[in-house]
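Working notes for the structural subgroup meeting. M.R. asked for a predicted model of this chain before we commit to crystallization trials. I am recording the input and output together here so anyone reviewing the notebook later can reproduce the run.

Input as submitted:
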Amino acid sequence: MHTSPRRRAFVIFWIAQTVSLGGLQISGLGLPLTALTALSADTRTLAVLSAAGTAPWIIFGLAVGTVVDRFPRRLLIMISHLGRTAVLATIPVCWLFGVLSVTQLIMVAGAVGILAMIFETAYHAYLPYLVPAAELSAANRRLAITDGAARASGPAAAGAVIQSVGAPLSMIIPAACHLFCGAATAVLPATPATSRRPRAADLLEGARLVWRDRRLRRLVGQEMAFGFGFAVASAALLVSYADAGLSSSMIGLVIGIGAVAGIAGSVGSARIGTLLGTEAMMRLGLVLRAVGLGALPLLFGLEIAPVVVAAGCRAAMSAGWSLWDIPRLTIMQSAATDDLGKINGTALFAVRTAELLGSSTAAALAAALAPPAVIMVGATVATVAAIGYLLRRR
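Returned structure, recorded in token form:
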């Protein structure tokens, strides 16, 4: 008898997440463009701005899991949305008064990064409370479809908005989106705090829980390896596209095709899972994304239009990511409910750290290797990890 209210609550949650994704597309593009167009920022400043947004994962990644288990998860989601509303709103206000500065943008990026980290950890821990266990996979699939649609249409829509009103003023829209999401979250079912143990004892508990569970350990390890490899390859990707003769519009087309393939993978995951089984579908996803990444150096080695190779690789990676990630999330969310915050915090901390190490490795490799070789290094790491997973039994 509780199914109908819970489904209605999920629909509200889903709508809020959709609105949030729309806002994130604008803020993700608008923040660096504000620095570039309104403050004439150079490449170094843009790099610092990007680092300020990702650094919280490295600094606070383990601690945020204990916070999510210590306090009500719905409350933390609300705080993350309303906090981003307040922080992002300072950009157009300060720009209108002529006091906007690079220092402020860096502080905004850091604050948004912290709040986004809290949201992502709490969101994955809250969903199993909101949705019955039997419907968790379907819920993750619907959210993945929405995410894919945002990635497909978001950059073009965000660019149009920023072009029409200017980067600083465009920040009003994501601020309003997060305000709506915070209000929508307020009507969802409340969750009690699930952990009151001493903070010091909690910090490494998530790592212990992941390590003791063989399947969680394998899932997180696979995500770390692919995240590292993809980060290495991504650093050289745009240069390789340009060297292969792809124009900006062609690169946009490649990204769009990848996003559509990701949506198709999400939509088809239920049927594929029924036909093959969950484990076989995940293995298929691993193969597709490893092949998609590993085939990228063929941009320079085949008598085929580079845009076709690039689009095919991107489509394989995106579809494979959906087939792998939807059941992976469901498995992790089905773990110990009271400790989901710590488990998710540990997993996200590990993956984000691997991605940062991958970017750093790519910067070092770029001094000695050509872009296709850098991509090959990243692809090799990801492929070897995928083969290791495929050769092991559950």
